[in-house]
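Severity: low
Component: inverse-folding endpoint
Summary: output formatting inconsistent between runs
Steps to reproduce: submit the following structure tokens with default settings.
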């Protein structure tokens, strides 16, 4: 079975229980790193050679991908990063709405600042200003202007260059 990603590439559908990929980080090497580098090339974030060595360029590409899909930007490829790489979009993110708070809200505020929708402080508080900015952005992107970040909104937000 295959899944067509938002980039139009065919990617085999893989469930969490099927992945069982090793954790990778700076200094790792081997076939899993080759696979990682290929997935990063498909995401458009890796342009170096595919050599199976997890060096600085691979780490920076992983961090850029993690930022894009709202994961912790540590450059370490855990199960969650593998899942997002295979899916080509964010995974396992909570629904955010007015009253939500924390690091994910800050990340969304930064993204909405980059689109010039959000003019408030990046404070991690999902209040009326964040909700209004999100609704404006949702309308421009032909999404229901709910002011709630659901799975579809997460996926669309992840396509904004960061």
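Observed output (run 2 of 3):
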């Amino acid at each position: 079975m295959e899944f067509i990603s938002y980039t139009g590439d065919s990617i085999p559908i893989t469930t969490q229980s099927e992945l069982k990929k090793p954790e990778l980080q700076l200094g790792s090497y081997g076939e899993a790193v080759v696979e990682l580098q290929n997935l990063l090339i498909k995401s458009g974030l890796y342009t170096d050679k595919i050599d199976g060595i997890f060096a600085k360029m691979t780490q920076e590409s992983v961090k850029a991908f993690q930022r894009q899909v709202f994961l912790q930007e540590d450059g370490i490829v855990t199960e969650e990063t593998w899942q997002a790489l295979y899916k080509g979009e964010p995974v396992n993110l909570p629904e955010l709405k007015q009253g939500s708070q924390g690091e994910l809200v800050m990340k969304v505020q930064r993204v909405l600042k980059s689109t010039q929708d959000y003019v408030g402080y990046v404070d991690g508080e999902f209040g009326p200003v964040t909700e209004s900015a999100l609704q404006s952005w949702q309308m421009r992107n032909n999404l229901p202007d709910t002011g709630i970040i659901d799975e579809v909104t997460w996926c669309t937000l992840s396509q904004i260059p960061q």
